[in-house]
Structure formats: C-alpha cells, structure tokens
Design brief:
There is one protein chain. About 15% of the residues are buried. It is globular and about 55 Å long. The longest helix is centred in the C-terminal third of the chain and has 18 residues. It has six helices and two strands; from the N terminus they run H-H-E-E-H-H-H-H. By secondary structure, it is mainly alpha-helical. The protein has a domain of about 70 residues: Herpes Virus-1 (2-Layer Sandwich), CATH 3.30.40. The termini are far apart.
C-alpha cells in the first residue's frame, strides 16, 4: 500500500474504522494492520481510485467482503448497538436465521 495514501486515509478517518468506529491504532498496537477496503466493491463496479478506498479494521474488511456499505452496516447493527460483540455477531446472525427458519416449520 502506498504510505501516502495510508496517511491520507488515516487522517481523513480520524484513525477509526469507518464501519464500526474502532481505533485502527489500537488494532495496530496488537499487531493487526488496517486493511485497504474498496467502499464500493470491485465486483459491484467499484474502481481502484483514491475516492473508493478506506482503511477498515481487519474484522470489518473480512466480514464485509463484497457487500455494499448499506447492507454491511445493516448487518453489523447488533454490534453497533451493543447487543453482541464482533466475535459473537456471526453466531448471533446464524442463530436469528435458524430461529426464523424453524418458526416456519409446523410442529
């Protein structure tokens, strides 16, 4: 990654992940480097342009994959509102999906 782009994005984002708001510096102190993320995924027509990049924390970048931003933000709402941890968010979502699926089964 171009160091200048990293610095520009880091300053523009006030050192925080734009999705979950965690401190990128705190992650770096734990040996986890921020990821260069395409805001609009390349698979959805996003370009390799400075305006389409952000620095995301490791977790958000891995979980977002090629989801559009609004879909990803909706996905992490339970975390953003303090209902679950990042670690438990996937399990929470799977539980809700299974619960919904099983409610449709007649017993």
């Amino acid at each position: 990654m171009d160091k200048r782009l990293f610095i520009i994005l880091y300053e523009k984002q006030n050192g925080k992940c734009p999705y979950c708001g965690c401190s990128l510096l705190e992650e770096a102190k734990n040996g986890i480097a921020p990821h260069l993320d395409h805001i609009k995924p390349k698979s959805k027509g996003g370009k390799n342009e400075k305006e389409n990049y952000c620095l995301a924390c490791n977790w958000c970048n891995r979980v977002k994959k090629d989801k559009p931003v609004n879909e990803f933000i909706e996905y992490i709402q339970p975390y953003l509102h303090g209902f679950v941890s990042k670690k438990d968010l996937s399990a929470f979502k799977k539980y809700k999906e299974l619960d919904k699926k099983f409610k449709n089964i007649k017993r």
